[in-house]
Design a protein that fits this description.
The chain is built from 13 helices and 5 strands. By secondary structure, the protein is mostly helical. Helix 1 links the parallel strand 1 and strand 2. The two termini are 29 Å apart. Bound molecules: adenosine monophosphate and tryptophan (TRP).
């Protein structure tokens, strides 16, 4: 069998489940923008079908979908360069998701750490959608034959499962149809940690608002949260090696590096030897400088929800034009009659 070479195409998604954090920005959106500027075709989705795997109030879901779209655009995603849309408007995702539910195995799903974390102690009471979530995620990616997926570290396991689904489908039907997608987990901030506990991921669902920086926080709130962030009493080291056993210090340095587009070693060459009393104000200035324009622009865009909806509708049309022929071909491979 000759190997099919797939043209480069980037896909990624974020759940509109409320409140974008600095983790989403540095781990995902900022890197979506970098890839958009590489001249490759880029599709970025608000994965509303994934969001409802846990309860979402309908009015909140609508608001959060628009706010996420505003966040994408305010951070630099350009609807003329990237295809921006919400998942439920392109029904091919759900259709391929079903086909993949018949390819993926229960045992694969049971190993997913995100399911275990989200379902908690009462897994029997979790929705069936939460359990099957990774099959739909594989469909999001593969319905476009996407070759590269920028995500934060926490999505690595889901991307491995996506490759397993593609490989099993290709094997079962004796085709070379779906590509082996590459995760793109790069940069200084692939795992931004809580400002209150360096062993926990910064997350929109953390009960403590002080643990995270929200993309809608104003300058004063950002400043207060960074000044109060947990640290240790030592000065900053001059080399990354010196951060190994210092998770909180490492997190703040990683955030500084990612926000300033520097690598960690270069940051430490500048700030090594400084106390946190000196470093934190530098980080506050940098964070406010980079994040304030985004939150201001998000608020401006949110004043015109109809324009956001129009942008998403237009993006969905372009997404469908790529997805539908791939879905038809998939149905044909599986043996469905489509007359
Ligand atoms: P979610 O909000 O769970 O839909 O995540 C959307 C994207 O943001 C995914 O690519 C995640 O890997 C990324 N992300 C979420 N939290 C963090 C974090 N604390 N650090 C780095 N990336 C993150
Ligand atoms: N599971 C991802 C998260 O929780 C969101 C997501 C859904 C996604 N489908 C995707 C990310 C496809 C990348 C590609 O963050």
């Amino acid at each position: 069998m000759t190997e099919v070479v797939h043209t480069p195409r980037v896909f990624s998604g974020i759940q509109p489940s409320g409140g974008l954090t600095l983790g989403n920005y540095l781990g995902a959106i900022k890197r979506f923008v970098d890839m958009q500027e590489c001249g490759i075709e880029t599709l970025y989705c608000m994965v509303d079908l994934h969001a409802i795997t846990v309860w979402q109030d309908p009015a909140d879901l609508r608001h959060n979908t628009r706010e996420l779209a505003a966040g994408y655009i305010a951070a630099g995603l350009d609807p003329n360069k990237s295809i921006l849309f919400n998942q439920s408007q392109v029904s091919a995702h759900a259709e391929l998701g079903w086909l993949f539910s018949c390819i993926a195995r229960m045992g694969w799903m049971k190993r997913m750490t995100q399911f275990k974390d989200k379902a908690g102690k009462n897994a029997e009471n979790a929705s069936l959608g939460l359990f099957g979530y990774p099959a739909l995620m594989a469909a999001d990616i593969l319905i476009y034959h996407s070759t590269h997926v920028p995500v934060g570290e926490d999505q690595k396991q889901h991307l491995e499962l996506t490759r397993d689904v593609a490989a099993k489908f290709n094997h079962d039907f004796g085709v070379d149809f779906f590509p082996m997608t590459e995760p793109v987990i790069e940069g200084a901030a692939t795992r931004v940690m809580s400002l209150r506990d360096g062993s926990k991921k910064m997350s929109k669902s953390d009960l403590s608002d002080a643990s995270r920086i929200n993309m809608t926080d104003d300058a004063e709130t950002i400043s207060k949260k960074i000044r109060k962030a947990k640290t240790d009493p030592d000065a900053l080291p001059s080399e990354a090696e010196g951060l190994k056993e210092r998770p909180e210090a490492r997190n703040l340095v990683n955030i500084f590096a990612a926000l300033s587009d520097m690598d960690v070693d270069a940051v430490l060459r500048d700030v090594g030897g400084k106390q946190f009393s000196e470093f934190k104000p530098m980080l506050v200035d940098l964070a406010v400088d980079k994040l304030s324009p985004i939150s201001t622009e998000m608020a401006r865009l949110m004043n015109d929800p109809a324009e956001i909806d129009r942008t998403l509708g237009e993006g969905a049309g372009r997404a469908r034009a790529i997805a539908n022929p791939i879905l038809e071909k998939t149905y044909d491979i599986v043996g469905m009659i489509r007359s």
